[in-house]
Amino acid sequence: MGESKEDIKAVSRHDLKSINSVKIDSSAGKQERIRSFIEQIGDPNCYLDGDMVVKISYADTDVTLEERLISYLGLLMQG
User: Fold this and answer.
1) Could you read off the pLDDT tens digit of each residue along the chain, which spans 79 residues?
2) In 1-79, where does DSSP find H-type helix?
3) By the number of CB atoms within 10 A of the CB, which of 26, 31, 32, 43 ranks highest?
């Protein structure tokens, strides 16, 4: 599951699958649920959520999401 290199402005909505149509069997094991999700959504880094195109990308950094969120919340509390 690598990062999608597509330019979000160039992505055709017709080529994307809607996350709203994904059905996951909660009784299935973790690996089976992951496999099922990928099979249904196609590219998990670029999909539709309602009318919104969602593109997920990742920064090349050693800072974790948790550390970023803590920093962000600290800024909110200061301000």
Assistant:
1) 444 556 777 788 889 999 999 999 999 999 999 999 999 999 999 999 999 999 988 889 999 989 999 999 999 999 7
2) 30-41, 65-78
3) 43
In eight-state DSSP terms, residue 4 is: P
Cα 51 to Cα 17, 18, 24, 25, 36: the distances in Å are: 11, 9, 21, 25, 23
- Give me the residue label for tokens 């990928």: 38
Query: Taking Cα atoms as reference points, which of 41, 40, 44, 39 lies closest to residue 4?
Result: 44
Number of H helices, E strands in the chain: 2, 2
- Scan for tokens 């196609």, then name that residue: 42
**What does pTM read for this prediction?**
0.66
